[in-house]
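Let's practice the habit of predicting before peeking. Look at the sequence and jot down your guess about where helices and strands might fall. Then scroll down.
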Amino acid sequence: MTDLRMSRAAVAAMVDHTLLKPEATAADVAATVAEARELGVYAVCLSPSMLPVDAAGLVTATVAGFPSGKHDAAVKAYEARLAAERGATEVDMVIDVGAAVVGDWDAVRADIDAVRAALDDAVGLKVIIESAALSDDAVIAACRAAEQAGAQFVKTSTGFHPAGGASTHAVALMSRTVGGRLGVKASGGIRTTTAALAMIGAGATRLGLSGTRAVLQGLPDQVR
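Done guessing? Here is the structure:
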């Protein structure tokens, strides 16, 4: 539990309203964008194959190397660049989690470097480290690799890994590691208002949510 108190609008302004289901249709995407506008969130995060979309008034985010991360770095870089050409202004890339597990940080860094180099400076890069599958030491090293490669955010999870999604422990560890120099995105399994506030309290500066409405409904219009 957390005693953090925030208004609905304040939390909404931290949310990437997300639709990454493989069965998503164009109609689903349109409905997600409309709901994102209604809820007043920061961004909408969609699969790259669903771009471009009319998301005026919202940041358009997408993913690269998703969800496994087991793509050649050149493929991730091309996917990210193509998505940016189709309107994405933020890209959430998945590292090679296996390389992180065995401590091959040169490979992890090269992977991130390739994607960062493929994007204009104006396009934000979030690096998904799949924190539930890593030791604390590996989480720290992955965050350092992301920072060294010029990422703007580190992100906990894809939400598709069997090891699990975001945890307050991982978020706090990531936040301490990047020390405010990068943002921290908590994503994966955040389905309640209490869970969302706990992630923010642990240091998350962005939330990846698919059930955004349910999370926001538990918050007040104003904090007194």
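How did you do? The chain has one domain: 8-217.
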